[in-house]
Every structure is written in structure tokens, then in C-alpha cells.
Amino acid sequence: MKGPKPLPKPLLVVGWRELVSLPELGLAGIPAKIDTGARTSSLHGHVLEDFVRDGERFVRFAVDWDGTRHVCEAVNVDLRGITSSNGDQQTRFVIKSPLTIGNLTFRAEISLANRSQMQFPMLIGRTALRRRMVVDSGHSWLQSPAIAHMGRIRR
Fold this sequence. Notes:
mainly beta, two-stranded parallel ribbon, globular
């Protein structure tokens, strides 16, 4: 006879926008939109080059925000066709990197895209959210209490 099912672990509650960090890339406090309509997370980054090091394919890219250019390198997981918010199919580099929201850190797939016309330099998609977080769309900055008093921001 089977015992009772274990209770599911509680999920982190996030607002529709949060500050996130990519510690392996040296990026912290990135304003991100939480978007359950997007499958893949994306980061505003300009690909500078892709190259092979010790048999692994890497991508070097620049992230421009907060008035500073941050040059980052990451293992290139994939080159993938992704449908953008306006319905266009784009080929993007996809990396895998630890992502921190609040006290939760996990590895996430992140596509590199031109988000210069978007309000937020990063978008967190549903694959990253799944089984980890739920979104309270009526609130902002639930995991970013230091700026909870702020309205719209664009860095």
C-alpha cells in the first residue's frame, strides 16, 4: 500500500517585474519582465564573436545597460530559431547560465537578442519559471524589496 503523496514544495512568488542577476556573467540587478507568454528567457546582448576553446563552443557578447558595456563570455549551448514578440522568426545564440531571482538560483537557458527597443533588458520566460515560481501579475518587485517603492525603471 502506498503512503500519501508528498506535498509539493512551495513555489517562489514573483511580481511581473523583478531584479535578477547572472552571477557567472558578472551581471547583477538587471530589471527583468516576467513573461509567461514567452517560452525562452532572453537578454539584451550584442554577439561579438563565437569561438572554440578547449573543444567547447563559446560566445562573447556585450550587454549594454546602466550606462555601461559589460563584455561577457558563455558556453554556447545552441543556435536556435526563436519567434520574437512581433512574430518574426530569428536565429539566436542560446546560452545556459545561473540566474538568481530573490534567494533562488538555478541554471536557465537564455537567448541573446536585441532588446534595445524594449523596456526591460531581460525577459524571464515560462521554461525558467516552471516548477520554481508563480507570478502575481498585480505586483512588482516582490523579490526585489530594495526597489519595491519605485515605479517604472529603465536603465
